[in-house]
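lol forgot to send this yesterday, sorry. struct tokens for the thing we talked abt
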């Protein structure tokens, strides 16, 4: 028994008329009758009672119709799901992101993905820069947002956007947009900063902000999570420097952001040999989300 025989049988079982069934199935009636006869011989059961005027299902034929109909629907579903998985419209992808992406590109990327591909499952992990490349290497994640420029051939990157850094201060700090000139005015202040290795590009840029003004910050707390840093600044435990997109997640906190001249870039990164069919959709949508953010420049400037 093959799928074609099953289709022919179900067509006759629905019409209970060989001529009408043959017409709907685009087959001549003698050939249709021959296929039904071969099916009955193969399974050793009479499926239809026939006379010159009527065609009726036998009890065995009615049972066979009900069960084969379920199987056919299941097969059609499996076939369609297989096509969708192959095309990347169904599947799973594990995504790593820094905290700042929560306040810029990540929500837009997720919303656009769900709107276009609701059957794609995205597993999110907030992850520090130090750990992101390791997670990609070890297959802990499949794609990530990063501020690191990788020249490792194992990875591919795609620039999404750049944004300013900002000095983050408590709401009642004496510095404001009128009297703030540069971060050199904060040499005597305590700072709360991420703990970043000197070889990291992001770390070099961040520490270069202070180096340009001839001082090293007095760091009283380290945290690689922006939400933690914002709360510590709110409690007046120190100042910080963060990407300015954090401003959009801090409106309810007692902090203010003073824009700095230095900028940082955000990239999408993935394993160069990753064949996950979902990945091309994520790359395209992330780029479109970045373009949308650029049109709403308040996020990044």
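and heres what i got for the seq, position by position
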């Amino acid at each position: 028994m093959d799928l074609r025989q099953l289709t022919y049988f179900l067509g006759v079982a629905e019409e209970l008329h060989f001529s009408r069934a043959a017409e709907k199935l685009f087959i001549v009636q003698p050939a249709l009758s021959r296929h039904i006869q071969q099916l009955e011989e193969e399974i050793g059961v009479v499926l239809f009672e026939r006379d010159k005027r009527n065609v009726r299902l036998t009890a065995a034929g009615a049972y066979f119709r009900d069960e084969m109909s379920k199987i056919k629907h299941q097969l059609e579903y499996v076939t369609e799901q297989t096509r969708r998985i192959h095309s990347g419209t169904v599947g799973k992808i594990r995504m790593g992101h820094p905290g700042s992406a929560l306040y810029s590109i990540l929500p837009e990327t997720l919303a656009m993905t769900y709107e276009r591909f609701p059957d794609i499952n995205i597993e999110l992990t907030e992850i520090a820069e130090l750990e992101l490349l390791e997670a990609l290497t070890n297959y802990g994640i499949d794609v990530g947002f990063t501020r690191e420029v990788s020249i490792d051939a194992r990875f591919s990157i795609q620039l999404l956007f750049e944004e300013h850094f900002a000095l983050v201060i408590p709401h009642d700090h004496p510095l404001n947009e009128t009297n703030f000139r540069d971060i050199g005015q904060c040499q005597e202040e305590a700072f709360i900063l991420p703990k970043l290795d000197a070889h990291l590009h992001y770390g070099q840029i961040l520490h270069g902000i202070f180096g340009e003004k001839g001082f090293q910050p007095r760091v009283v707390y380290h945290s690689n999570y922006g939400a933690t840093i914002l709360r510590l600044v709110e409690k007046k435990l120190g100042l910080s420097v963060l990407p300015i997109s954090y401003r959009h997640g801090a409106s309810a906190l007692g902090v203010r952001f003073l824009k700095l001249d230095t900028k940082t870039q955000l990239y999408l990164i993935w394993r160069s040999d990753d064949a996950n069919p979902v990945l091309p959709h994520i790359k395209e949508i992330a780029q479109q989300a970045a373009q949308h953010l650029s049109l709403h420049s308040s996020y990044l400037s």
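The chain has a mean pLDDT of 90. anyway ping me if u want another try
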